[in-house]
Amino acid sequence: MPRRKDLKSICVIGSGPIVIGQACEFDYSGCQALKVLREEGFRTIVVNSNPATIMTDPGFADRTYLEPLDVPGVTSVLERERPDALLPTLGGQTALNLATQLSEAGVLDELGVELIGAPVEVIRRAEDRLLFRDAVQSVGLRVPESRIVTELSDLVGVSLPAVVRPAFTLGGHGGGFVSTRAQLERQVAVGLSESPIGQVLVEESVRGWDEFELEVIRDRIDNVVIVCSIENLDPMGVHTGDSVTVAPQMTLSDEAYQELRDASIAIIRAVGVETGGSNIQFARERDTGELRVIEMNPRVSRSSALASKATGYPIAKVAAKLAIGYTLDEIPNDLTKTTPASFEPTLDYVVVKFPRFAFEKFPGADSTLGTQMKSVGEAMGIGRTFSEAFLKARRSRELDAGVSSPWLELDDLPEGIHPWFLSEIERIRLALARIPALDHLDADELLRLKRLGLSDAEIADAAGCEEPELRAKRLALDIRPVYRRVDSCAGEVEAASNYYFSTWGEVDEAAPDPEREKQSVVILGSGPNRIGQGIEFDYCCVHAAQSFRELGYEAVMVNCNPETVSTDYDTSDRLYFEPLTIENVLAICERERPAGIVIQFGGQTPLKLARAIEAAGFHIMGTPFEAIDLAEDRERFGDLLQRLAIRCPEWGMASTSEEAIGIADRIGYPVLVRPSYVLGGRAMRVCYRPDDVRSALVAAARKVLIDRFLENAIEIDVDALSDGECTYIGAIMQHVEEAGVHSGDSSCVLPAPSLTPAVSEEITTIIRRLGPALGVVGLLNVQLAVVGEEVFVLEVNPRASRTVPFASKATGVNLVAAACRLGDGVKIPELGLPPERPPRQYSVKAAVLPFSRFPGADPVLGPEMRSTGEVMATAEDLPTALAKAERAAGRELPASGRAFFSVRDADKSAAVPVAAALAGLGFELVATRGTARAFAGAGIEIGEVLKVSEVEGKEGTTVVDLIRRGRCDLVVNTPQGSGARTDGYLIREAALIARVPCITTISGAAAAVQAIANARRSESCSLQERIAADSGAAPEGRSREEESS
Amino acid sequence: MLEDGAAFRGEPVGAHGTAFGEAVFATAMTGYQEILTDPSYAEQLICFTAPMVGNYGVARGRSESARPQARAAIMREARGPAWTDWLSDNGIVALTGIDTRSLVLHLRDCGSMRAAVAAGASAYEDTLQTVLEQPAMAGRALAAEVSTPDPVVYSDAGLVSVAVIDYGTKRSILRRLTSAGAMVTLMPHDVDSGTLAGFDGVLLSNGPGDPEPLVAEVATIRELLGRVPVFGICLGHQLLALATDHETYKLPFGHRGANHPVLHRASGRVLVTSQNHGFAVAPSDEEEATHISLYDGTVEGLSYPKLDAYSVQFHPEASPGPHDARLLIEDWVAELCRRKAVKRA
User: Fold this and answer.
1) Distance (Å, rounded) from C-alpha A664 to C-alpha A43?
2) Catalytically annotated residue among B47, B64, B234, B291
3) Is position B317 annotated as part of the catalytic site?
4) Which of A396, A417, B162, B177 is disulfide-compatible with A379, CB 3.0–4.6 A?
5) By the CB < 8 Å criterion, does A248 face chain B?
6) Is A857 helix (H, G, I), strand (E, B) or coil?
7) Same CATH fold, A894-1014 and A650-700?
8) With an 8 Å Cβ cutoff, are B108 and A505 in contact?
9) How many Cβ contacts (< 8 angstroms) between chains A and B?
């Protein structure tokens, strides 16, 4: 059956900001779908609020809307574009939920938009626990015994232990295991409030059973194939997103596996998914073989992205083709080209996925793993054996030194792990224990260790030598890795696949022809998502691949994050799915002999390798290591700034508390203490007194930088391009929150609203001096603080920054493409860039924070970055853009109601005008005693409420009660000191649970009030139209030559 | 070591000695024990593409015949001890640590070929010489070597009587027949048509080797057509094809796996099937070709309603592999039962 002819235009919904449980995988699926739809000649419309996605790039769809992913947001786009169909199965739970809401609200019927991919009844049958249970039971299978609970009184007679699962939440959010009555009641209360439909399932616990997932695809004539089986090393009880997983499954016999396969097929039919992929999870009792069906996602998922990368079978692409009418046998297998997609991939290698956690960012949070997902990213390893894949994935996590994490050491194994995995890991441990000193290590033994999957660094560590020594010996013994193809068919069919992984002691397969016409460029990716290094860098890497291909190079990608677009084999000419360690990267370089290596787009990960890459004799394209070192070595950088007469906050470097306190005394408090060479403000602290400095030093546990902390400064972020001589200012952005809140967590506005022409001019001058002085060739990010008319440089990053995608989308200038051309030797004047000028419309980037995942950690903004994602909104005026961005971030600002204030003493005077403005807007104000008195003193009418500590054991309504009962619509609370169990913490936690917007800085509050007061209803406008309007109506700017003279 | 001189090194994990046979590869990710005990693999050396073999041990009930039929197992990574002990105990020469993917690519590009698997020291030249002295698979009649010498009643409870001509049948075919309600009698490969005429149905089993030299067997099938309902699987399918004037030929490297897509032409539906055959029925546009391989267009199913004869190249009984086609056996037995009931009435 060929594609449907009755459809002309299709709208695809994305998954919004990166949050725990929904990451880059939906950018990957969205991009694949859009490619397919465009190839098939459809007009495509995208709605997604996340600017860091590739799918929202203007070139990826006919119309791109960076709009809030809520019913009004998507409705306005549908009204404007009138597509024939809406495809919601590629944007995660967010898109699926939205599709259900739009259908229930009658919007789709009214506008005549057909839901394709999954009809609403199918979504309901898969998502609604009761309907799903019926569907599963109708084919003779079982789900865990369960009952639907909508209020606490429904819990009578529930047997324990049990698991609580809220309906319609992300990643099992709000659920958990309970073994006591009290735990049960508490968890159900949380679950009921988290579930948008106020429903939780309390079910039989299958904790400790083995967990399997199957990825299933079905077409409209009922052909079904299983793309991949995935087995969890962490037994049931740990969310699959937090589990170490392996594909294909390792421990089931054929008859046991076929039972799962049969069950999956029966379920997808019973639920009725007709065109697309689904993921079905099973619990299996190891000894009896008893099965329970745990859940099904009638859409592409994190696991399907993993399965696609694990098998080379592009599930999202195939799902999109099925949605528009094709059948599986009509779709060619992408890798073989000669065989159809109606087969099941067979693997001649093993794939292991490790989750990446960030508990160090959330002190106080419970790091026990459970049914609620807590990991922020993942890394995948491919090897010819389990141990090889396991070790590759494990080291691909790139854990920071000194952090604690599940699976940190080889002995850190989950309870109840299958004995087969235990024996495999034991094999590794034994091998490590038997490694002799370097001199006694012979060729056979070394090859055996490499085949097991151990890295040079791991072997060197066990042999008591340095990695370069081990490497030298290995090369002298001529022990080198070889590369094998991922071809989806275990070699049975010839496949010109460009997707590789390394292994040892075999024959190298399809090495690039040394005589090939095109030279290659190796682009290093950013590895697993973590806080501070996420999808923004993947966006940059994907653009780099596109740009270098356009420049006539072969783009070679190296990355180990299975969620990403960069690890889609379609993105590059060759994909190496490998850990981003120096050993793996150099081996790839030796095989590729590239014209250059591109390190400026993958965040800090490739930067750490720069020195060794150059030392090995390879050429870094664009900004060389020297410039990176100059920017990151604080002493050298300090000297440079001095020479250029550029101001920076006073600073010093210390290894001991005494030194640190000495420096702090010299430069004056408050000071900012942080370790060098980290991204995302890891362990960064603002210290007001010597005690703070001492504890900060303990936390950092290594050499620290101490900077004078500038209070009440405006923080500015600049993304610029430099060719080593000439510099182009891409975007000057202002942070909404003051300096002291990490730039990644602060909202950010473009153009910067508070800069005077003089200050703007000074900033521009500074950047123009810095670029060439550092020797930057490519992207340059500078963070500055403005105090009055004085401008200070805080930090320079000679690489792509987190704001590049946002800046590119706000200005319409593709900064990455320009940086790639600079790396290729083109000069700025030859780039044909539009004149430097701020965009006419206001764009706001707002951060999305994962606090609700980490109960116990204080939900307050600070110098340590903790956001997982971001949203973008654009409007004619700033308040409208701000309000829209807050809405897109899931924190819609109230238009009226009651606002609660509790601010620290230092903020009281600054808070007065904010409170007055809110009162003027008709808000009722309440505050805790100190704040209330200060405001009343300033003539503001305000009510007083009690803190929790003030009622301790007595009767009385506290602010927390008020928030819990939904009688508070906005919370402004600046922290008096952080940490659990303080009054401030309790207020913030209550707001988080009640989903009341909680603002923790005065500048943030001021911006919010401005937004509440002045936001207008704005028409949605596509990125393409905005860029066209901007360039069309562009006033004549000064030419580059004039500016740089 | 392959007949073209290519050699791959590994460590022995099974029985000692040198095994000679045809080197082939199998791509199923599970079911290693079923594969080695499947009589269709007689005189073959099996390279598993699955990266790790032996993970879940062995179990008596998984064997597809009384003993291992393949002569050697070639693995990238064998896991024991249950599996490797079983290999040793059953006299199967086995190697682990082999660069199986390179071997597979070699066999794919150059075709299945004669080879030796040696556990222990052996001289390269002598071994190669012996390999070259072995007969090639094309033209070999092997059914006699794996067939039952005498009729055997497999099960005597059931609604209809089915004779299985044993060219090397898998136990799971017998199990599927029995569970579908048939009384099953196993017949030697050279059984005459007269003996079979009294049965309600005859199943032509799977088996090893080239179908073409089995001239007498084909003649018997010809005699049966139109007299007794016939259902063929794998080699049985090829024999039915020869009996109905189709051509068979040797595939370059065979179809051995659990993921092969087969198109049912009438419905447009695709079955994911379990396959194990080195010879195939040449592509045909004739109406009777009901199923075709989506890999190479070879005929995967034949249907002669007038002759009451049907066959499939793939394995509906799976073991190992997907159960998509399982119903074919059940449906056939159900049809036999229905007819018998009608006749009685």
Assistant:
1) 60
2) B234
3) yes
4) A396
5) yes
6) coil
7) no
8) no
9) 137
Q: Which has more confidence, A978 or A815?
A: A815
Has domain A511-618 been given CATH number 1.10.1740.10? no
Query: Distance (Å) from the C-alpha of residue A220 to the closest C-alpha of chain B?
Result: 10
Is pLDDT of A872 > 60? yes
| Active-site residue, B264 included | no
Establish if A491 touches chain B: CB-CB under 8 angstroms: yes
Name every chain B residue with its beta carbon within 8 A of the beta carbon of A489: 27, 259
How far is the C-alpha of B247 from the C-alpha of B243, rounded, in Å?
Answer: 10
Best to test chain B binding among A230, A249, A254, A261 (most B CBs inside 10 Å): A254
pLDDT at B205: 98
Residue A209, both tokens: 């059973």
**Is the Cβ pair A491, B56 closer than 8 Å?**
no
Helix, strand, coil shares of chain B, percent, nearest 5, are 30, 30, 40
Position A1033 pLDDT exceeds 70: no
- How confident is the model over A829-856, as pLDDT tens digits? 999 999 998 899 999 999 999 988 887 7
* Mutation for A interface: B295, B300, B314, B323, most A CBs within 10 A: B295
- The CATH code belonging to domain A9-116 is 3.40.50.20
Using an 8 Å Cβ cutoff, are B116 and B20 in contact? yes
Decide if pLDDT at A926 tops 50: yes
Length of chain B: 345
Cα–Cα dist B91/B72, whole Å:
9
pLDDT tens, A283-294? 999 999 999 999
CATH node for A894-1014: 3.40.50.1380
pLDDT score, position A1038: 34
Domain extents in chain A = 9-116, 511-618, 622-647+710-862, 650-700, 894-1014
Task: Say if pTM beats, i.e. exceeds, 0.90.
Answer: yes
Query: Which candidate from B97, B99, B323 shows the least CB-CB separation from A262?
Result: B323
CATH superfamily of A622-647+710-862: ATP-grasp fold, B domain (3.30.470.20)
Residue B234: active-site member: yes
Nearest C-alpha in B relative to A345: B259
Q: Which residue of B has its CA nearest to A491?
A: B105
DSSP-assigned beta bridge partners for residue A652: A706
Nearest CA in chain B to A386: B52
Which residues in chain A have Cβ-Cβ distances shorter than 8 Å to B294? 329, 339-340, 342-343
Q: Dig out the tokens for B227 from the structure.
A: 């007299």
Nearest Cα to A431, choosing from A399, A388, A474, A392? A388
Q: What class has domain A650-700?
A: alpha beta
User: Which amino acid does the sequence have at A677?
Assistant: Y
Digit-coded pLDDT (tens) for A129-155? 889 999 999 999 999 988 889 998 889
- Burial class from Cβ neighbours inside 10 Å (0-12, 13-18, 19+) for residue B144 reads middle
* Beta-sheet pairing, A200-204 with A162-166: antiparallel
Contacts with B34 from chain A: Cβ below 8 Å = 254
Question: A5-47 pLDDT, tens per residue?
Answer: 999 999 999 999 999 999 999 999 999 999 999 999 999 999 9
Is residue B259 within 8 angstroms of chain A, CB to CB? yes
The answer to whether A339 faces chain B, any CB pair under 8 Å, is yes
DSSP secondary structure string, B16-41? SEEEEEEEEEE--SS-HHHHHH-GGG
Cβ of A346 within 8 Å of Cβ of B51? The answer is no
Domains of chain B: 11-133 (3.50.30.20), 143-344 (3.40.50.880)
A116 contact partners, CB below 8 Å, separation of at least 6: A7, A10, A85, A86, A87, A275, A323, A324
CA dihedral in degrees (A594, A597, A601, A606; nearest 10)? 130
B11/A contact by beta carbon, under 8 A: no
